[in-house]
Design brief:
By secondary structure, the chain is α/β, with parallel strands linked by helices. 33% of the residues lie in helices and 21% in strands. The strands form four sheets. Strands 3-2-7-17-18-19-20 form a seven-stranded mixed sheet. Bound molecules: N-(aminocarbonyl)-beta-alanine and zinc ion (3 copies). One zinc ion is lined by residues 56, 58, 313, 315.
């Protein structure tokens, strides 16, 4: 059995050309003109692109006294409907819990996934046990990324000495640390102050997390990574202050990556001033949405390459869950959805407006993160031998986003009412057609765990350079006698 995607234009991160793509046994087996196979998918008028990779999701995540409402089944169904063929979720040990035990819990949740997936491991506490288990997570379990929360004080937050210890361990293991960069101590005090002043609505969530708080933490995470001798990836970069820190570090030669979310690129802070409490609370996430100047900075970063990846941080809570925070904004579960909408929204607001090119679209939705996570060219590529995770993108197909027609399990959509032009005609996950002209044909349990090996090249280069430039005592001849 083979499938040929016929008559389309292949668009990758660096090339645009007309060719057919033949798929067999879940892999791309041939690329060229006039291919034949058992089945044909008509790609006339379409772009054939690597399926999206979303490196930041929280499916069925225990958080703020509840669980996010999309699980691995509905979440990956939403992903495929929007052209995303792989997600990377976060295994979150509760403080004191073994990393391996937490990973086991996430392994159990992910058996229902419709598309391929992987995990980042979160470091939520520090001990000799964590130090030791990090090696098993990298070498035995195939996970090369560790997430650190500088916010959520009293829950997931780690402090600087824990982060520095963990980053040094990442350097030794060839792993990449990820950081949620907000100063959690300052946020906690600002929250308490706002509440004491009677500011308890969802808008106070935004007031409690100003851009400076994110910028400071981003600078601090970058400095700690520099001292530890490892690269660092800043998740949900939402503001100019954080972007500026990343730009500056990259200009100094550091391997620092930044990940804006589609929500921050397209929605702004005025959402929190909506008179409808539910409307505003549904958009509560950390960091909060910002103003147009910050949005312009993020778009510029994607175009210029100082920011590399567009993700969603998909963490969907129902309106009923959001209402836990009526009367106290600090109890509104933080998180928004976006898995189904990331690629259509980015195409509509990015490619169609001329902010980014089609090739840059592929780079920031798929190829760059595949390289950063060390799964390229299995994912993120249209090459012979790569996984047939593909999206046949119809630039003329249009819809108005609505909670009534979405795959996500929640009862609203933060992009409700927005018309997007540019949608999948077909989405294929390892050669299997999961989405066909808007019809969902996903197969629960089809998704497989993708192993991600460490990056010895980067850590070897960084440790070699550190060794070359390490402080050394000057060897002197004829040292004078002590003056004492
Ligand atoms: O508000 C957010 N972003 N919720 C999900 C957890 C996180 O911080 O990424
Ligand atoms: Zn400490
Ligand atoms: Zn976060
Ligand atoms: Zn997140």
């Amino acid at each position: 059995m083979s499938t040929v995607i016929k008559g389309g234009t292949i668009v990758t991160a660096d090339l645009t050309y007309k060719a057919d793509v033949k798929v067999e046994g879940g892999k791309i087996v041939e690329i060229g003109p006039n291919l034949t196979g058992t089945d044909t998918l008509d790609a006339t008028g379409c772009y054939v692109m690597p399926g999206g990779v979303d490196p930041h999701t929280h499916l069925e995540m225990p958080f703020m006294g509840t669980y996010s409402s999309d699980d691995f089944e509905s979440g990956t169904r939403a992903a495929l409907a929007g052209g995303t063929t792989m997600v990377v979720d976060f295994a979150l040990p509760s403080p004191g819990q073994s990393l391996l035990e937490a990973l086991n819990m996430w392994d159990n949740k992910s058996t229902r996934a419709n598309c391929d997936y992987s995990f980042h491991m979160a470091i939520t506490w520090w001990s000799e046990q964590v130090f030791n288990e990090m090696e098993a997570i990298v070498k035995d379990k195939g996970i090369n990324t560790f997430k650190h929360f500088m916010a959520y004080k009293g829950a997931l937050m780690v402090d600087d000495d824990e982060m520095f210890s963990s980053f040094q361990r990442c350097a030794a293991l060839g792993a990449l640390p990820l950081v949620h960069a907000e100063n959690g101590d300052v946020v906690a005090q600002l929250q308490a102050k706002l509440l004491a002043e009677g500011n308890n609505g969802p808008e106070a969530h935004a007031y409690s997390r100003p851009a400076e708080v994110e910028g400071e933490a981003t600078n601090r995470a970058i400095m700690i990574a520099d001292m530890a001798g490892c690269p660092v990836y800043i998740v949900h970069t939402s503001c100019e202050q954080a972007h500026e820190a990343i730009r500056r570090a990259r200009a100094k030669g550091m391997r620092v990556f930044g990940e804006p979310l589609i929500q921050h690129l397209t929605l702004d802070e005025t959402e929190y001033f909506n008179k409808d409490w539910d409307h505003a609370a549904r958009r509560v996430m950390s960091p909060p949405f910002r103003n147009k100047l910050h949005q312009d900075s993020l778009w510029a970063g994607l175009a210029s390459g100082s920011l590399q990846v567009v993700a969603t941080d998909h963490c969907a809570f129902t309106t009923a869950q959001k209402r836990f925070g009526v009367g106290d904004f600090t109890k509104i579960p933080n998180g928004t959805g976006g898995l189904e909408d990331r690629m259509p929204m980015l195409w509509t607001y990015g490619v169609s407006t001329g902010r980014i090119t089609m090739n840059e679209f592929v780079a920031v939705t798929s190829t760059n993160i595949a390289k950063i996570l060390n799964i390229y060219p299995k994912k993120g590529a249209i090459l012979v031998g790569a996984d047939a995770d593909l999206v046949v993108w119809d630039p003329k197909r249009s819809k108005t986003i609505s909670a009534n027609t979405q795959q996500s399990a929640i009862d609203y959509n933060v992009f409700e009412g927005k018309t997007v032009t540019g949608l999948p005609r077909f989405t294929l996950t390892r050669g299997v057609v999961a989405i066909e002209e808007g019809t969902v044909k996903t197969q629960e349990g089809h998704g497989e765990f993708v192993r991600r090996d460490p990056f010895p090249a980067v850590s070897t280069a960084l440790s070699t350079w550190k060794e070359v430039t390490a402080p050394r005592a000057v060897q002197r001849i004829g040292i004078p006698a002590s003056g004492v």
